[in-house]
Write a structure and sequence with these properties.
The protein is of the alpha/beta class and 226 residues long. 35% of the residues lie in helices and 19% in strands. It contains nine helices and eight strands. The chain is globular and about 65 Å long.
């Protein structure tokens, strides 16, 4: 079986930054134990082909158009051209449903199953990440509306959906009517194998939270809940 994954991923030698990249790193490594895996990385700074113990990685150069216009048009077509040559059994797209926006449907597609994992709400991310640039802030409502429409239409193209948490499912009513499975993000063994430090009796409970502080991650609300 040949599985093609489509997702963002760092260049060779560069550590993953967490989030989608870390999920893809763990998933790719484990799927490669049972099937041939090819990873296609869209919107890279430069084109590159690389191969490691988990399989081949192809970095596709980003088009010279804004991301909110290019990923579902120019990049989508470039990805399909590459997939058509690979003729995989399964294509698994991560995070951006619109990467399949221009892909054909029907009996002539070069895969048996098209799977998508939703990691977040791109239109909401656009609104929260445009506060410090007046041009991006002014254009954010239009960009968010367009991306929301593209993502909603694109989600309908997939055979199956992977849902990583209930928040995503409750925020996307259209997804609830599709074929989906709830599968938690893969967790690196380091978080399970490390010995636990037992608290001394009578000591106060302590919690250490490590992460990026920004509106997208809603860190302030997490602190307030604690």
């Amino acid at each position: 079986m040949h599985v093609v994954m489509v997702a963002k991923y760092p260049f060779p030698g560069v550590p993953t930054t967490g989030g989608v990249e870390r999920v893809v790193e763990i998933l790719r490594r484990n799927v490669a134990k049972h099937a041939k895996v090819t990873l296609l990385v869209p919107n890279a700074m430069t084109p590159m082909n690389f191969e490691d113990e988990a399989g081949a990685i192809s970095y596709l150069e980003a088009p010279s158009v804004p991301d909110f216009l290019g990923y579902w048009s120019v990049t989508s077509k470039a990805l399909y051209e590459r997939i058509e040559k690979l003729r995989p059994d399964i294509v698994h797209v991560q995070d951006l449903a619109g990467l399949a926006f221009s892909w054909p449907r029907g009996v002539d597609v070069p895969w048996r199953r098209l799977v998508f994992t939703t990691h977040g709400l791109l239109d909401k991310d656009i609104m929260s990440q445009s506060a410090h640039d007046w041009l991006r802030k002014a254009s954010a409502p239009f960009r968010a509306w367009l991306i929301s429409a593209v993502e909603r239409r694109s989600r309908a193209r997939y055979d199956h959906h992977v849902v990583i948490n209930d928040y995503v499912l409750s925020s996307l009513p259209d997804l609830q009517r599709m074929s989906w499975r709830s599968i938690a993000n893969p967790v690196d063994r380091v978080f399970l194998d490390e010995p636990r430090n037992e608290r001394a009796s009578g000591s106060h409970y302590e919690l250490l939270q490590v992460g990026v502080v920004n509106p997208r991650k809603n860190t302030l609300s997490a602190i307030e809940i604690i």
